[in-house]
Amino acid sequence: MHPDMLRLTDVHAHYGAIHALRGVSLEVKHGEIVTLIGANGAGKSSTLMAVSGLLRPTSGRIIFDDEDLTHLPPHAIVRRGISHVPEGRRIFSSLTVLENLEMGAYSRTDAAQTRQDLDRVFQLFPLLKERRRQAGGTLSGGEQQMLAIGRALMAHPRLLLMDEPSLGLAPKIVETIFQVIREINAQSTTILLVEQNAHMALRVAAMGYVMEVGRIVLADQADRLIVNGDVRSAYLGE
Amino acid sequence: MRPQLRISALYRHPMLASILAGLWLALLSLPLMMELDAPYFGLERSLVVAGIVMLLGLMRWCVSQWRRASPVWMDRAVEAGGAVVRDAARRLDRRILYGLALAAAVVTPLGLNRYYIDVLTQVGIYVTLALGLNIVVGLAGLLNLGYIAFYAVGAYAYGLLATRADLSFWAVLPLGVVLAGVCGVLLGFPALRLQGDYLAIVTLGFGEMIRIVLNNWDSFTGGPNGIIDIARPNLFGFIFTHPIHYYYLILAIVLLTIFAVNRLNQSRLGRAWTAMRDDEVAAEAMGIDLVKTKLLAFGLGAAWAGLAGVFFASKMTFISPESFTFFESVIVLCMVVLGGIGSIPGVILGAAILMILPEMMRQFALYRMLIFGGAMVGMMVVRPKGLLAVRRRTVQTPRQGSAHTASANMPQTPPVVSRQGGGRIVEAPVEAGLTLLETHKLSVDFGGLRALDMIDLSVKAGEILSLIGPNGAGKTTFFNCVTGLFSPSSGEILYRGENLVGLRPHQVAIKGVTRTFQNIRLFREMTVLENVMVGRHCRMRSGVIGAILRPKGVIGEEEEVVAQAIDLLRFVGLEEKTDLWASQLPYGDQRRLEIARAMASNPSLLLLDEPAAGMNPQETNGLMDLIYSIRARGITVMLIEHHMKVVMGISERIVVLDHGMKIAEGTPEAIRADARVIDAYLGNAS
After folding, report:
1. Rounded to a whole number, what is the distance in Å from the CA of B424 to chain A's nearest CA?
2. How crowded is the C-beta side of B91, counted as CA atoms within 13 Å?
3. What is the pLDDT of residues B611-663, one digit of tens each?
4. Chain A closest-CA separation from residue B1 CA (Å)
């Protein structure tokens, strides 16, 4: 098996006339946490959306486990083993917590394994088990983020795309979420993480990519990026 | 699992899908199109239908293939080509185009017989109706299925007043307009709280009610027999008899309608409608009176129907309830949707197509409605946003070289106040020591859940106060109470000593309290500049008449607001992006735009709900500078934030909520050391 689980080669994408991705190339190795950092509008979310098929690339290739995903629709990509935790959570607010989680397993047919995954999610987030009959929209922000992550895990992904999981969360919850990210990764799920909280992201990640105006401008091991002077001044606010 | 996937993928292949669709349509149309005594039993007709559908699908597929396969240079070439065409179109003076269209409209009927002139007159009536409905549906986003009732009101107003009171056409024309407008407002009242499907059902009911009343009130309306012998218009002794007289009259009415609707769309009112359509909550919080704005949309929309109705009665000289059925409402709605919701040329085109096509297809007799329906479906599939889906014309930033500085890719620190030359925005003096906002025992219950529990809180003029606490602690609920979105279960909210409880959100905004939203609520279908201009809405004066006649005062007001908006956008660092759609901005910029929009009405108290969410550390530093400069403008800032660097860095005081209760209050140092706060909120991270 190729050591790279996910490989993007010169991916371009547009929103109408706006050229959002201008030749993004990156690799994610099996079992790693890789993080994308950069300013607003640099194309981090667009990169994730291109991988999960929500944004169709205009050119370039996206290879996942030796298979070309570039022209597959989003639901087919989920079946290949990639789940997306979208920015801003986007839970189904009128469905219950349990129903939200079941939606995550929508395309699956293996009932026993699904059952196990549900247990795993409840183990990661005991709070969700307590609230499983409550409508998703009545959860607090932190609980909704847990639900969004849980929902993505219900598809039993091999690669988890996370877009700003700490957005709008209390410091204490942010700690919890990052703890969970480590735990999920330890259970052999590869993670591609987009985060504004670059400190935290670089601390959990093995590799980091810095994006600027739709391009990757810097790629290095996360522990090296965190001490890189340019990165510190531009993205860590120091 | 795999093979199953392949089949479904194959089925979804656009080319195959179009072939299947074609065959399916052929099968469906077979019984309708077959004729036993025709050669080949008419089977070829179905095949022609199928062939056309397949061909369309094939063309779409080719286009999509070409787009997908195109390398970057080709995209660029297409973009450049598009720019050239756009530029040329812009340079070709619009007035020439409009002049030609008008000349054609004036000259064409001279060469036509009575029948075709009649058809064109009919088109004119429906253009007027469709443009009126476009105000309600297209601009204000309120679905109205009983629109034809207002047409009936206009027609019966003339029919009754002409036959019974002997009033002339010219006297009834304005009267019918006003009457229909009033009916529109009356319908608007009960429908105010409704949206979408529910509103559609209520308006549908209203339309039917009017028709049934007309049909059954024999003594007054003549019942099903209607009113006959209605006088023709008489202009200083010249009596309208020939169809061409009516044609020119309706042409004048149409021109008036286009002029007025266009100007309304470009006015303060048009902006308010668009904002309301995009996001009612945000519109209200920015100071737009939803009641007034919705009623105006209903009333103005209905007024044009009344106008068309009076004309219709005078032209037919006979009216009966039959002309005002639900089907007519649907047809007018179809014209708007088919042509392109919100687009004036689109709506005119839609009306023309829907009136002229059925006439041209009379030879197909039996199949006419089938073909017609099929064509509608086909057009909506190919162009789901209507034939001419033009986004509404927007206010453009006046291009001045000096106003635009060089752009930079890296996030920038917004300039501080001292760099603001001129400073068109009035800087309110900080009334130091004054208590701006005060709550006493403020409580909110949602069902059994107590979201806020006896909150006592005060905000002093000129301070920066942070409200922090775990997710779900009630922080946003507090903002929602202050801004009038929620009404508290008990307690009071005093702003400069005045109670805010019971005020509606736009009234709170007028008082001087505005806000941003946690989950960004911009008007996505408007430009960055217009978003800020909507924020200024409640400080502007111009009304309907001003919007249509556009006197000097109104033009001046608009220019001033544009200048102020640009100033504010420069203040938050978005001066390069004024003409982009709000939805095109990246997350962090959207937050800054929300701040500029909230500042447009010159508030004294600005409530920011998680302004740093989605910003990276560098941008967060910029935000802190921005908040300082907002305060330097004399605006008191209260913010909800989770970003501790921001909270601890800029707040003078911090209030901590947990489970709806205030658990701590004090300086950043005190809060950082507070054991309860660490336990409930901060954790070990700090």
Report:
1. 30
2. 6
3. 998 787 888 889 999 999 999 999 999 999 998 889 999 999 999 999 999 99
4. 9
